[in-house]
Amino acid sequence: MRMKKNPFIQKLIQEGYEDKQSEFLSLGNDGQYSQEQKEYAFSQINEYGIRATARILQIPRRTLQRWCKKDGVWVKRCPDWVYEWAERRRKRKEFWARRGYC
Question: CB neighbours of 15 closer than 8 A, spacing ≥ 6?
Fold first, then answer.
């Protein structure tokens, strides 16, 4: 079950995305993507993953994947926090299953 997000929090998140996108665009030269833009995208990929970075920077995921392949950038399947979240979720499910709720 997904909970509705607070509109204030959504606005803050969107502003953060817009800041990252404007920083990404400021590194470019109104033509092809510059090497500085690619490096910035790689730093975001390491932090958030490819799909989230594509959504944040509003560029195609395939473009990011092509850059990573061309430059030999190894990308994890998912960010580190996902493993920690999954472990907490698994423990929570086990806890409630032992009590007969799942």
Answer: none
| Runs of H (alpha helix) within 1-102 | 7-26, 35-48, 50-57, 61-71, 80-98
Summarize pLDDT for 15-62 with one digit per residue, the tens: 999 999 999 999 988 778 999 999 999 999 988 889 999 999 999 999
* Residue 56, C-beta contacts closer than 8 angstroms, at least 6 positions apart: 17, 20, 21, 44, 48
- How much is the pLDDT for 1? 44
> Cβ(50)–Cβ(61) under 8 Å?
yes
| Contacts for 21-26: CB closer than 8 Å, 24+ residues apart | 21/56, 21/57, 21/58, 24/57
One-letter amino acid of 89? R
Amino acid code (one letter) for 26: S
Residue ranges per structural domain of the chain: 7-76
